[in-house]
Automatic annotation (TrEMBL), chains A, B:
The lineage of its organism: Bacteria, Bacillati, Actinomycetota, Actinomycetes, Pseudonocardiales. It is an enzyme of class 3 (hydrolase). Its main location: cytoplasm. PANTHER family: CROSSOVER JUNCTION ENDODEOXYRIBONUCLEASE RUVC. It comes from Pseudonocardia alaniniphila. This is Crossover junction endodeoxyribonuclease RuvC. Pfam families: RuvC. Homodimer which binds Holliday junction (HJ) DNA. The HJ becomes 2-fold symmetrical on binding to RuvC with unstacked arms; it has a different conformation from HJ DNA in complex with RuvA. In the full resolvosome a probable DNA-RuvA(4)-RuvB(12)-RuvC(2) complex forms which resolves the HJ.
Amino acid sequence: MRVLGVDPGLTRCGLGVVDGAGGRTVRCVAVDVVRTPADAPIAERLLAVGAVVEDWIERYRPDVVAIERVFSQHNVRTVMGTAQASGVVALLAARAGLPVAFHTPSEVKAAVTGEGRAGKEQVTTMVTRLLKLAEAPRPADAADALALAICHCWRAPMLDRMAQAQARSAELARAHKARVAAAAAKAAAAKAAGEAS
Amino acid sequence: MRVLGVDPGLTRCGLGVVDGAGGRTVRCVAVDVVRTPADAPIAERLLAVGAVVEDWIERYRPDVVAIERVFSQHNVRTVMGTAQASGVVALLAARAGLPVAFHTPSEVKAAVTGEGRAGKEQVTTMVTRLLKLAEAPRPADAADALALAICHCWRAPMLDRMAQAQARSAELARAHKARVAAAAAKAAAAKAAGEAS
């Protein structure tokens, strides 16, 4: 499974492509950071980020796009731009027919370091080690994008199993409800027949 | 000037097209609300909103797209979806070659009611009156989209004048700096010549 991980942003948007070879084995295919000037209009910045994401989807042909789920942080202005960028990435992935998955920062940190509140440096160190990179990816947004892709490689089988279990339990609940309704209808019909006779 | 106003959102996204005929005269061309199911994946919801926005751009050929600027509100989850939708709208407008403008909720309210903290009902009443509509547009998101478009019709000339004034003052500042630098260079040259002689 090939995953394009995106750490969305306007000032810096991290992109990382990782191949999951089954088990815990992961391989780095590409990593980069797109930057857009802070004084450019928002629409132009989104256009620039969108163009690179589309180019990467076409060039690396991922099976899925994993995006960091944005939370409201201290800086409201920054978080809005980040959310706008994440919307653009999700749209372009969906338009390319690719499934889109969101993972929270703590899910990503927990996946690669075993600790949901790990620091940026710890994430970078683990990403470098897991992907057997000669150098640590810089800036942190590049490492985050790779961490996100690794997280998706490892979480996807579990998420699939959870979705299947949920679908099965919904099916069982539906069948149970139908049996209850049928029994109630039979009882009502028997009662009506008793009263009529 | 024809303006497509968008009150971004995933559950309800308001769309309104308004023609500004100069002065305060405005005319309603179209208004609607796109809804997407709350239980659908984010990417699918963005895809649905994006498809309608593109259709409206093609169908109504606006000169500009005005989008409500999203602020962090009480419900963080909602505001993220709203910001993602606004990013998608801005991207699609920019890809269609259209300028994109953002207005804050209070700028919109102040433009149509004269009061930045006006209530939703007051905005709907003024929009209905200004556009001489037979019925009040419902739900509020539809009225908000029209209010946004009206706000842009009225603010655009002022924003243009401000941008021109800023460009002029930046040009004057550049010219002044150049004169100062030239004078300093001349003085330094004269001093060097004096020392050399």
